[in-house]
Amino acid sequence: MDRHPLQSRHGKIAHCISDLIGQTPLMELLCTRFGTRVLLKLEQFNPMGTAKIRMARQMLDEAEAQGHLKPGGWVIESTSGNTGMGLALLAAERGYRFTAVVDHHASPDKLRAMQAFGAELLYVTDQPGAGLHTADRETLAERIAAEQGAYWTEQHNNPANANGYWAVAEELLQQLDGELTHLIGAVGTGGSLFGTARALKAQLPRLRVIGVEPVGSIAFGGPGGAYHQSGTGTPPGAEIGELVDYGLLDEGLKVTDAQAFNTARYFARRRAVLLGGSAGGVLYQALKRAEAAPPGSTLVVLVCDGGEKYLDTVFNDAWMREHDLLDPKIDDELDQLVEQLTARAPLPA
Questions:
Q1: CA 32 to CA 189: how far, in whole Å?
Q2: How far apart are alpha carbons 133 and 177 in whole angstroms?
Q3: Helix H segments across the chain?
């Protein structure tokens, strides 16, 4: 388990920003009329507003311990944003050079945040709007590492990625006294969901693990295609990472961009919870599963980042219209679903 100090959470003084990682809050979004709870593990309360700083730290820790990364070294990673932000912060703390291999699919705010910490951005294409280029990014990162001596963290296949989420499992067990029945999360590299699930299943063998990916992602089969959800899924042409552990997966679901983004927008307006776009998709499917869950179940949704980085996209009406993603029918569906879940049971005659 992650044993790093968490001074700030215990009322003491932190000595560096990475001391603030972890001990993120758990929020009850709703409790159904049958006693089933839907809880949000709000990872946006980590530095940089993302869960991925947990695994970024773990990847550097293990690389240092194994002698792969020396003082003053050079770190490189292919990233759509959140991993890159975590690595950029940690590289600045530890005195490393960091290069992020990116494409124009990433949120501009994430790219600017990496640069704020001194990261070098290396684009695989000069064409704005060219979309997601995961395979090209990884090929370039691997080549530079081999030719120029940088350390490639290789998040999709690095066991340290999953190890970085053991602490999430430990926190959930403490926060819920071991009372959880479902774990639901987005599947990109697979680290957050399966790293957490593996540690939880050691204590809770009956835990049901549900993964969610965008329509167009190929990890759960089906045709590949373009999608706008950032930091999740496996696009066509990219390899499914070694951390995607189908042996731990009870159910793999897909969600459209419209379902994901309109759900995020819905709960921002109705509950003042600002979720990232992919987290909206996970919550959409979690609410569907809450309908069918046994009475008294506890469903934990891994919210890997907040919505602050998506104000120009998911929460921008003009951008949503431009991409034909605004869909009032999803709001109506969510209204009906929430009402059905939380309505009082009829009194016996």
A1: 32
A2: 42
A3: 52-65, 82-94, 108-116, 134-148, 159-163, 166-176, 191-203, 257-271, 277-292, 317-322, 328-342
Closest CA to 231 of 63, 55, 97: 55
pLDDT digits (tens, 9 = 90+) for 213-263: 999 999 999 999 999 998 899 999 888 989 999 999 999 999 999 999 999
Do the bridges between strand 26-31 and strand 74-78 make them parallel or antiparallel, or are there none, so unpaired? unpaired
Domains of the chain in sequence order: 10-46+165-335 (3.40.50.1100), 52-158 (3.40.50.1100)
Instruction: Give backbone dihedrals phi and psi of 59, rounded to 5 degrees, phi first.
Output: -65, -40
Per the listing, tokens 């949503």 go with 320
Closest CA to 148 of 93, 71, 75: 75
Per DSSP, 334 falls in state H
Residues in the chain: 349
Residue 237 contacts residue 217 (beta carbons within 8 Å):
no
